[in-house]
Amino acid sequence: MQYPLSALALAAACAVPAAAFVQAKPTDIYVSVVDSKGAPAAGLTAEDFRVREDGVAREVLKTATATEPLSVALLVDDSQAATPAVQMIREAVDTFLKSLDGKAEMAIVTFGDRPTIVVDYTTDQKKLHAGAQTIFPRSNAGGDLMDAIVEVGKGLQKREAKRRVIAVLMMDESVEFSNRYYESVLQDLDKSGAALHVVTLGRPSTSESDEVRNRNQAIANGTERTGGRREQVIALTAAASQMKALADELTHQYVVTYARPDTLIPPQKIEVTVTKPGFKARARTRTGLAGARK
After folding, report:
1. At 5, is the pLDDT very low, low, confident or very high (cuts 50, 70, 90)?
2. 122 with 158: CB under 8 angstroms?
3. Average model confidence (pLDDT) across the chain
4. I need a surface site. Which of 41, 90, 123, 205 has the fewest CB within 10 A?
């Protein structure tokens, strides 16, 4: 029996899996790439990147240097634990501010005793540097980093910047006042769309309190799942150089564009890697790409 050509075409179409007809949409993700010394890697192309969503490889369409302005909340430890490092902390803050001059709007928030806005978001370097000089350790005060991350994250949700950053400069021996559970802090961090970067000064704390354990879990998981940098700086005099390194990383990010199936369900996990030996890529790993452009 012979069938009309139109019927054969329809039958062939029905034989193709429905997934084949799912269209892909370009999706952008911000990526930091550093070499073995932690310095930004330059000159990478689309061929150097690999993107996988829930274990499935995605086609990388293009890559470029990220030029969108940054919105940065700098959280600074002014608890009593910062007393021996106050001058180094101020110098580190000044270095960070200068390195991002003209490339970011910034706010300075201290978290000794409670989160306190020292300077609200601005590009005015004079205001920012003046604010940095007012940072003094609070007598008998512990830290409240967990509350600070949550509150600052909620503020960042309201800002239009596509590249949102929470940068933390803290003392490892700082006592944590907040009793928030780390998972709830991570959920709020995800909603903010911000990348969490943490520079910790001093030797690792030996405290085993529940508050400190929760803080450490929030830092470890928060930096990993948002593509953030995490550094432990034993020598207090190296604080400024580490904050300069963080600023360099932020100002040398890539925006990687890849093809994602246009479905209603976002991926649970995203993985970005580079093919060049010795280079490490950092990007948001959790669902929704809250900080990425659509």
Report:
1. very low
2. no
3. 90
4. 123
With contact defined as beta carbons under 8 Å apart, do 207 and 177 qualify?
no
With contact defined as beta carbons under 8 Å apart, do 108 and 93 qualify? yes
Neighbour tally for 121: CB within 10 Å:
17
127 vs 133: CA distance, rounded Å: 10
Instruction: Kindly tell me if the per-residue pLDDT of 272 is higher than 60.
Output: yes
Whole-number percent of the chain with pLDDT over 90: 79
Strands 116-122 and 163-171: what pairing? unpaired
Q: What is the CA radius of gyration of the chain?
A: 22
Distance CA 170, CA 212 (A): 13
Q: How far apart are CA 47 and CA 228, in angstroms?
A: 23
CA distances from 172 to 194, 260, 263 (A): 22, 40, 43
